[in-house]
Amino acid sequence: MKKVYYSLLLLFIATTTLAQGIAIQGIARDNTNSAITNTDLTFTFRITKNDNTELYSETQAIKTDNFGVFSHIVSTGNPTTSAFSNVDFSITNLKMKVWVVYEGNTIAVYNQTFQYTPYAFFAEKAAFATNATNADNGVPTGSIIAYRGATAPEGWVLCNGQSLTSITGATALIALVGNTAPNLQGTFLRGTGVSTTNGKSGPALGNFQNDAFESHLHGISLNTKSTSLGNIPLSGAEWRAMNIETANSGGFTYKVLVGDDNRRNTTGIHNHTINGDVSSTGDIETRPVNYGVNYIIKL
């Protein structure tokens, strides 16, 4: 039976930070420097502080290939501690430690300090600690942008009012906006505060502002004053003899009172009140030309 030594089992191992986790790749060799090919090996990966305090641990069965090469992304294995997302990568001098079980022996094969801080994971923790003022890729948590796609890309969620509590990596965003993403469907964005250009006010931060028309007047000019007919030189008997109830004078027709006397009922100069509405026109809202997008918000 071949005996495996620490110095020879993993002749090469490297770590690389990816969006999903920390990639591990190595070549498994025995004490004769021969590759351990097509073999199932059980690995344990641990992230610790410099004083060996364990922050995260997971196990994973990995099969080597025809050349003894194996690879794995730490964060995708079977965790034996709290979640990978809870690791505080802002701590300096963190270590990656790797153990492997081979031929019944558990062997420590890697124990190195990270040569650089996994920036994406550090930024996420820093964003949470500073109310989302920093984030990976230079985009702060809570940033909202217009997006042409129907499904949010990794690290973002749609602004459609969805719950954030079950979304991985949403801790910093929840601290900023609460348990649900803002629902910006059918909504325009506007700067909060008061404009120094026109004095108009936007909505309070994180609040909606209802649609409205600016107060204004519609001018109207109508002349509705009537003109008195004056006295018509006919007696009451003459009106009755004519058997009419209207008379025309100066192009206007007037109703007259037919009675026993020779005076008719007139109202003289007076005004008329006009009520009513202008015919309706337009759509259900006032809006500029627009183009449909989804708004997305950064985790």
UniProtKB/TrEMBL annotation:
Short name of any one Pfam family annotated for the protein:
Collar
- Keyword field: Signal
Membrane-spanning segments: none
Q: Which domain of life is it from?
A: Bacteria
Give the residue range of the signal peptide. 1-19
Q: Which InterPro entries match?
A: Phage_tail_collar_dom, Phage_tail_collar_dom_sf
Q: Which residues form the Phage tail collar domain?
A: 142-180
Q: What is this protein called?
A: Phage tail collar domain-containing protein
Q: Which organism is it from?
A: Polaribacter glomeratus
